Amino acid sequence: RAGLMAGKRGLIMGVANDKSIAWGIAQALAAEGATLAFSYVGEQLQKRVEPLAASIGMPLVMPCDVGDDASIDALFAQLQQEWGAIDFIVHAIGFSDKDQLRGRYAATTRDNFRLTMDISVYSFTAVAARAAAMMSPGGTMLTLTYYGAERVMPHYNVMGVAKAALEASVRYLAEDFGRDGIRVNAISAGPIKTLAASGIGDFRYILRWNELNSPLRRTVTQGDVGKSALYLLSDLSSGVTGEVHHVDAGYHVVGMKAVDSPDI
Ligand code: NAD
To answer: Which residues are named in the active-site annotation (predicted)?
Structure first.
């Protein structure tokens, strides 16, 4: 296969359906010659992910619940057996009780705080450690975050706190693995209508607000994120690590509502 990712093999975690950000990234990587493996959680998603992977000629699809170390170990044992080594991973996974993704952050329960941090933050560290053990210099890792880590966004609540911790993890992991020539970065994506996003209160309003007030006066697509992921996962970004790269039509630079934006 020819292309920027020719000869490179990587794991994509977090495809739920064809709207998933992970799927947009997978398509961009496959178009540049990467060989991909996919992980999913639950039988329901297996039925969705297998045909998507097959549609781009990638047969390797494996289960993994990132809340369970044994499940992560089993995934990497299988990858070790199939490939022996890996060049990159994409972690596009987050979870929180959707009843707490509306209303006040202060109402977060201890149980949901733990669960959200475990699935949305610790899982990247757990996966990164196993992946690094299979990587050579030039290996790359990518996770997905959101502006709610930096500023208060309506309804994002405990997920914003988790994303702040995830972004800090990216910096610590970049230091841990940098001496081995392995790079770790994050994309802070603007809002995109996906399964996970549908759990966030007033999501349509948030999308519309971004469309009216971002410098590009639009929202971003899975394709926009896919192209930037290609840069961060490929040798094009060889000098970049520990970075949180915004792919949000510029929304994060704006200080107030655009003057041409109507009241909504
Ligand atoms: P999505 O629903 O398509 O993907 C979320 C994935 O997380 C699903 O595939 C789901 O199966 C997986 N997941 C949840 N719990 C899991 C577990 N225990 N083990 C393994 N997998 C598990 O939604 P998405 O919007 O594509 O989300 C991908 C990432 O992008 C998330 O980290 C999300 O926070 C982030 N993000 C999304 C947006 C947005 O607006 N959609 C913006 C910025 C960042």
So the answer is: 146, 156
